[in-house]
Amino acid sequence: MLDIDARTPRASDDASRTVATGIAPYAAVAAGTVQAYRSARTAADDLQAALETRGVIEQAEGILIERHRLTPDQAFDALARASMNTNVELRDVAEHLVVTGELAVGRTRAATGR
Question: Which residue, among 107, 25, 91, 109, has the nearest Cα to 52 in the 3D structure?
């Protein structure tokens, strides 16, 4: 919807209304394009974050697969359980395992998020 305000009543004449009516479809297309761009940008950012997160999770799964002879699904389930039990993001649990070799994340890490 195109909303045109004026400071005085009846400030727009027929010519002004004709111009406003003429540009309204273009303004709507521009607004739609901006919204589509924002949506696409958000999706791209989310995908990039998922790709970055997936790498460390796959490394942690590999450690569990090798160390405990788990299947990939079992390794992911172990990471997910550790995440839920400690209230720490899955990516952080995986990173902790990759860096320290330990699946369990300490209570202080769970409490502080660090």
Answer: 91
